[in-house]
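ok trying again, last paste got cut off:
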Amino acid sequence: MARIATIRKARFAPFRDSFSIDVEGRQEMVAQGDILDHEYDILRGDEAVARVSKHRFALSDTYGIEVARGEDEGLVLAVAVALDEMAHDSDGGDH
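nice, full thing came through this time. structure:
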């Protein structure tokens, strides 16, 4: 299998959660916001790639993912799932 991306929690982010997303062959992305509450943006440089929001769509455990036109939807969904797992993972390691 080939690795397509590596996600790492920022070592120092005092005001909000931040994860770096290294995608093979593409510019690095960053997820910033409140990962635990599913309210964050995925950015590539200054451009928004996606927005994840639990509170905009429902009061239950449903959350929505808005993906910018032309972005890889499968990659964004995989990143959102990985971030959810990492945010609730006790070892805090790279995934």
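cool. Residues 73-87 form the longest helix (15 residues). The radius of gyration is 13 Å.
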